Amino acid sequence: MVSALVINLMTLASAEPENSTMTDRVRQAQQFLNENGQSGWLLYDFRMKNPIANEMVNPQGMASRRWFYFIPKSGRPLALVHRIEKTTFQGIAGYIETYSSREELVNKLGQILSKSKTILMEYSPEGNNPYVSYLDAGTYELIKSLKVKIESSQEIVQFVLARWSERGYQLHKEAAGLLLRIKDKALDYVAGQVKKNKALSEKDVS
Q1: Most-buried pick from 19, 22, 57, 153 (CB within 10 A)?
Q2: What is the rounded (10 degree) CA torsion for 41, 44, 48, 50?
Q3: Cβ count near 109 (within 10 Å)
Q4: Number of structural domains, the chain?
């Protein structure tokens, strides 16, 4: 009986989680932005140094140039990517804008953020939270030069990427129930063997 319960638990543990679509994540991000009075969330990456940006956007292949993905508090998101890597971002939610030179990159960033006052990025003041501290100092300075206030994205990351889905919550409840049943069965078995003065090993219980 215990073995059967363990097999059921392993089946639950290996079940595929219910992944939100990118559109769902954008909707959740915009809900957070509106509830907290922020203009948008600017995700930035260069050669997969920002795992949060990559989990959120999921480029189809290795992007070797800098890219940005801006989620405004309302309206469609916009990706700013190098011209030669546009196909890497096909299928994402929102528009795709391209650049070729640094000057064009900076100009288009300025246009994208022109109506923004406060944005969120993977930045942690004084390195307080290293789990979201992926924004390099130079890019921080560049965005600040565009007259935009930068705040940490740590709370929106948790809201969008770190919460259980309803199915995930139910799977955890089922797993917890199975663990309790396994514990009860094992203790009942041990108690029965002790009463019979029988030798007992870990292997017998498992």
Answers
A1: 153
A2: -50
A3: 23
A4: 2
Q: Which two tokens stand for residue 119?
A: 């944005």
Q: What is the DSSP string of 110-160?
A: HHHTTT-SEEEES--GGG--GGG----HHHHHHHHTTT-EEEE-HHHHHHH
- Sorted by sequence, the CB contacts under 8 Å of residue 129 that are 6+ apart come out as 152, 154
Q: How far is CA 28 from CA 25, 80, 90, 160, 175, in A?
A: 5, 21, 21, 6, 27
Cα 170 to chain centroid, rounded: 20
> pLDDT tens across 75-133, in order?
999 999 999 999 999 989 999 999 999 999 999 999 999 999 999 999 999 999 999 99
Nearest to 70 by CA among 131, 122, 119: 119
pTM, entire model: 0.76
Residue 57 belongs to what domain range? 22-161
- Count the Cβ atoms, other than its own, within 10 Å of residue 193: 14
Looking at the fold, whether 170 and 77 belong to one and the same domain comes out as no
* Cα–Cα dist 8/15, whole Å: 11
Q: What are the backbone angles phi and psi of residue 48, rounded to the nearest 5°?
A: 60, 35
Residues 12, 27 within the same domain = no
